[in-house]
């Protein structure tokens, strides 16, 4: 972890945050819910499979889950059962330590997750969700980050924003790849289990174990005030 005395590695003007597993603890809820559903079919949900699903949009992740797990259900059946459990549990999600959102979550899920975290999400100037019609392709394609970049520029009345001046905060390997594909700087904050699966993941500008370790000066941003 670089100290506050580190020489800035770049000049960041815009920050884009993923949501699930980075800002709020919904990744652990996804794990809990999916484990519960697969157990009904005598199947297990391990972190290798979870790592493949993280950051994907709903349709792609459900199709891959059913295929990889071998559970006797359709992607649509899985999504229905998952939605019932999400309605019950997502309103109780909480911010993670250290806490523009660009999230692969669909808008209806974002509303559920942010319901009891309005103070946190009110701090963001722009919210972009995975079902936004402007996003042609999901992660690892960079579309969602380009949409977030352009809307931030519009929000602040700016012209073109250089990709290299954007910093993406991500927790998933596929999200990191999307940020790299966007030619943006990427700060990776993986869950410890995912981190163990990818001890030497290529691409991120910096890797941290918690957002609490983030030093804005390293990226040419103003230091935190006490």
Brief synopsis:
The protein is an alpha/beta fold. 39% of the residues lie in helices and 9% in strands.
Cα-atom Rg, whole angstroms?
Answer: 17 Å
- Mean pLDDT value: 90
- Assign the CATH superfamily of the largest domain: HAD superfamily/HAD-like
CATH class of the largest domain: Alpha Beta
Judging from the principal axes of the Cα atoms, what is the shape?
globular
Largest sheet: 4 strands, parallel
Number of helices: 9
Mind telling me which CATH architecture of the largest domain this is?
3-Layer(aba) Sandwich
How would you explain this protein's 3D organization?
This protein has helices at residues 26-39, 47-53, 58-69, 75-89, 107-114, 118-121, 143-155, 173-181, 192-197; strands at residues 14-17, 101-103, 127-129, 166-170, 185-188, 206-207. It has a 4-stranded parallel sheet, covered by helices on one side. It contains 9 helices and 6 strands. The two termini are 20 Å apart. The chain has 2 domains: 14-25 and 94-219, HAD superfamily/HAD-like (Rossmann fold), CATH 3.40.50; 27-90, Putative phosphatase, domain 2 (DNA polymerase, domain 1, Orthogonal Bundle), CATH 1.10.150.240. By secondary structure, the chain is α/β, with parallel strands linked by helices. Residues 1-5 have low confidence and may be disordered. The chain is globular and about 50 Å long.
């Amino acid at each position: 972890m670089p100290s506050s005395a580190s020489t800035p590695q770049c000049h960041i003007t815009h920050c884009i945050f993923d949501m699930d597993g980075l800002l709020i603890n919904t990744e652990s809820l996804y794990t809990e819910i999916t484990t519960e559903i697969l157990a009904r079919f005598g199947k297990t949900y391990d972190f290798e499979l979870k790592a493949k699903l993280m950051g994907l949009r709903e349709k792609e992740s459900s199709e891959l889950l059913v295929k990889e797990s071998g559970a006797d259900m359709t992607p649509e059946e899985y999504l229905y059962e998952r939605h019932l459990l999400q309605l019950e549990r997502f309103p109780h999600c909480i911010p993670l330590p250290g806490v523009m959102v660009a999230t692969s979550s669909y808008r209806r899920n974002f509303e559920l997750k942010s319901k009891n975290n309005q103070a946190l999400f009110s701090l963001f100037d722009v919210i972009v969700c995975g079902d936004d019609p402007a996003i042609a392709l999901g992660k690892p394609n960079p579309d969602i980050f380009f949409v977030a970049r352009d809307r931030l520029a519009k929000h602040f009345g700016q012209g073109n924003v250089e990709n290299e001046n954007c910093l993406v905060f991500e927790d998933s390997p596929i999200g990191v790849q999307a940020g790299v594909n966007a030619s943006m700087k990427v700060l990776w904050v993986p869950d410890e289990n995912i981190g163990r699966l990818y001890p030497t993941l290529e691409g991120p500008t910096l890797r941290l174990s918690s957002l609490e370790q983030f030093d804005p000066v390293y990226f040419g941003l103003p230091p935190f005030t006490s």
